[in-house]
Amino acid sequence: MEMSGFSTAIPLAYLASAVLFILGIKRLSHPDTAAGGNRLAAIGMLLAVIATLLESGLEYTWIIAGVAIGGLIGGVMARTVKMTAMPEMVAVFNGFGGAASGLVAVGEYLRVAGGAGGETLAIDSGVSIMAGTLIGAVTFSGSMIAFGKLQGFVTGNAISNPLVKFSAGLLLGVAVVLAVYLVGFESNLVFYWSLIAAALILGVLFVIPIGGADMPVVVALLNSYSGLAAASAGFVLGNNALIISGALVGASGLILTGIMCRAMNRSLANVLFSAFGTGSATAGRAADGDRVATPIEAEDSAMVLGYASQVIFVPGYGLAVAQAQHRVRELADLLTERGVSVRYCVHPVAGRMPGHMNVLLAEANVPYEQLCEPEDVNPDMENIDVAVVVGANDVVNPLARDDPSSPIGGMPIIETDRAKTCIVIKRSLSVGYAGIDNPLFYLRNNRMFFGDASDALARITEEVKQL
Amino acid sequence: MEGTLLIGLYVFVLAMFVGFELITKVPPTLHTPLMSGSNAISGISIVGALLVIGRAGDAVLMRWIGLAALILATINVVGGFLVTDRMLQMFKSKDAS
Predict the structure, then answer these.
(1) What interface predicted TM-score (ipTM) does this complex get?
(2) Does residue A31 surpass a pLDDT of 80?
């Protein structure tokens, strides 16, 4: 720490900003106070930046340039991103955060060990620098692959290959050996760059084997890593503001990861290391050929919905793909005007990131009082007249409940098969991400509305108007 | 120096507990804004980036690394808080209606 006139004021400002972060997150616990909470956290950040700028010896031209460029890019991205693309946006930001923290560690390494002297590192700052470099690099490259998968640049399929696992293990080993050598024996720039390269490849190998619909878990986990990267940068610099903020974010990501795993009834290790759907039970009961799925058209759907008293909508990733959130809202409004009680039941892993569906529905101005969770609806499912499944599949698959040996066995589902009538809006009868057949489609109380979600909902809405 | 590391660890562990307590109270509806908002908070490495630039002195490579870190962290901070605000306004606006 620089010893200037601000020597106590600066750490106190950091403390204040940490407090603002905590109060900000606390206010995120309710939709009404959440926006204020976010602003509080932003003020905390501003305070931390101002406090840092008061340190003597900073290079203001460089700083102004950096903040201007970064602020412009960040601002434009935040203003223009579509709500359906939030998972991609968060993945990219996780990566940038990780990279920034990693680069801070790199900068510190160069300062401490990069000089002509090539001094050895003190054990504590050495360990912090290595951890910061590793976590930062893994977060960056892993997030970029996650972004590529969400965006479709990289195959969304789970690439399961023993070679990938072997290489990942080997690289992790190499990285750790390099880190130990660099801290314990001598600092060596070539070895350090090799460590960074190994960590970058490791991040790629870590995300590559994970399939598209497991992305909520990966994005949450990378969120946690970006926090841990910031915390290790805090250890590198001996700065408590970074340590506290990083720990908060690390905890947040870990909790979300846990929630996502529980919602799929899978362990984190299972998500990360065993590509989904490759289990033995996949074949299951796929082939009893004489089952017939009953199709339904817009007019009949409108009749069923228009004269129902209780309707739930179950949105899934297909809703995001078809950008159908506004259409759902229009139909729901129309039904509400007719006296139908409408709710939206959101499964925790629906979509590509935690809370993805909720954001889309919020964008379409769905009142959050109408949102509910599977536990709220399932016990009462017999009284639901119509359950409309929009672009969801595995989260309403009764096999999860009925067949423990199925790959999704034990995953909590929304039991729309028990509603009086279930209408599934879907392009085809194809299997969902889990690669297993969905017996719901062939049930007697189920109807299939084949087509694009947005288009299908628009047509049903038109028909309801005619009633 | 050992003292600094140890205090850092204390702070880290306690802050993790605070984080766990706070975040378990956030409802699933708000999980996406929570992620983007906490993500913006992890952009606190902007402080680290400023310090790296400040400590670079004549080391050119270090200064460029600091600048790269500063740009990335600023994108993270500015973009993260703004997009979270945009989302949360949508959650809030319906409240009135």
Answers:
(1) 0.93
(2) yes
B32/A104 CB distance under 8 A: no
Three-class SS of residue A423?
strand
Give the pTM.
0.85
Strands of the A446-450 sheet, one edge to the other: A371-372, A341-345, A310-315, A386-390, A421-426, A446-450
Residue predicted with more confidence, A417 or A289: A417
- Per-residue pLDDT reduced to its tens digit, A268-281: 877 777 655 444 33
Name the residue among A57, A110, A229 with its Cβ closest to that of B59: A110
Q: What does the alpha-carbon distance between residue B92 and residue A363 come to, in Å, rounded to a whole number?
A: 10
Which residues in A lie closer than 8 A to residue B64 (C-beta atoms)? none
Give the mean model confidence (pLDDT) for residues A199-214.
Answer: 85
User: In angstroms, rounded to a whole number, what is the distance separating the alpha carbons of residues A131 and A50?
Assistant: 27
Closest residue by Cα to residue B47 from A247, A55, A152: A55
With CA atoms as reference, report the closest residue to B55 among A56, A12, A124. Answer: A56
Is A77 close to B69, i.e. CB distance below 8 A?
Answer: no
User: Each residue of B60-75: pLDDT tens digit?
Assistant: 888 899 999 999 999 9
- Closest chain B C-alpha to A449 CA, distance in angstroms: 28
Beta strands in A80-124 (DSSP E): none
* Contact (Cβ atoms closer than 8 angstroms) between residue A254 and residue B17: no
- Of the candidates A213, A225, A193, A318, the one whose C-alpha atom is nearest the C-alpha of residue A260 is A213
Size (chain B), residues: 97
* Residue B94 Cα, gap to closest chain A Cα (Å): 6
Mark yes or no for CB contact A66/B53 under 8 Å: yes
Choose among A403, A167, A392: nearest CA to A280. A403
Distance in Å, alpha carbon of A314 to nearest chain B alpha carbon: 14
CB B74 within 8 A of CB B50: no
Q: Which of residues 113-132 of A touch B (CB under 8 A)?
A: 114, 122, 124-125, 128
Among candidate residues A444, A354, A334, A344, the one with its CA nearest the CA of residue A391: A344
Q: How far apart are CA A112 and CA A107, in angstroms?
A: 9
CB pairs under 8 A between A and B: 397
Taken in order A319, A323, A329, A332, is the CA torsion positive or negative?
A: negative
- C-alpha–C-alpha distance, residues A82 and A348, integer Å: 21
Asked if the C-beta of A20 comes within 8 angstroms of chain B's C-beta atoms, the answer is no
